[in-house]
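Regression test case RT-17, inverse folding.

Input:
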């Protein structure tokens, strides 16, 4: 048993190191002066290796918007199951905690994703909307909007991410990342 312990520890260490290659999240710190109401990022999925499910997108502390590939290619807007669906984009399919818009996005093409929010402190709720910039069509596409009760703060914990079920399943390049404050000004989140 004593001889097996180093091998077991080495095996566990290699599994943990391999998991780091499959997933990546970059969270951006917002200055106190920015009360963010929109979060946008440019995303270029350069390669998908294999047929396992992959995701690349943006998220906040409560919603997530991403390009997804698996059996089909879609744009996915995830929100809490307790949220109320307010609107879904044309040709989008809605579930209890997700809206999917089937879109055959291409690799090596730069797209933009944007999460926008509006709040009502008197009624104590926020509306979160997910949009995708469709490069081929040269237009913004509403994926959907949800209403979350008990929240009237600004966008919190904005982040970019990618995820794969398989090691080295996706190669992603994140371009510009911006937050828009409630005063209308945009902040480049990649600048110091």
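Golden output:
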């Amino acid at each position: 048993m004593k001889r097996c312990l180093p091998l077991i520890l080495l095996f566990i260490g290699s599994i943990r190191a391999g998991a780091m290659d499959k997933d990546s999240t970059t969270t951006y710190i917002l200055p106190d002066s920015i009360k963010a109401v929109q979060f946008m990022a440019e995303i270029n999925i350069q390669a998908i290796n294999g047929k396992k499910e992959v995701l690349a997108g943006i998220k906040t502390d409560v919603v997530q918007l991403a390009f997804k590939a698996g059996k089909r290619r879609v744009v996915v807007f995830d929100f809490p199951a307790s949220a109320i669906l307010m609107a879904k984009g044309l040709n989008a399919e809605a579930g209890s905690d997700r809206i999917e818009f089937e879109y055959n996005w291409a690799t090596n093409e730069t797209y933009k994703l944007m999460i926008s929010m509006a709040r009502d402190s008197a009624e104590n709720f926020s509306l979160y909307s997910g949009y995708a910039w469709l490069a081929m069509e040269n237009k913004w596409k509403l994926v959907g909007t949800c209403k979350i009760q008990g929240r009237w703060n600004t966008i919190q914990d904005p982040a970019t991410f990618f995820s794969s079920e398989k090691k080295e399943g996706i190669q992603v390049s994140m371009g510009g990342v911006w937050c828009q404050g409630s005063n209308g000004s945009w902040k480049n989140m990649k600048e110091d």
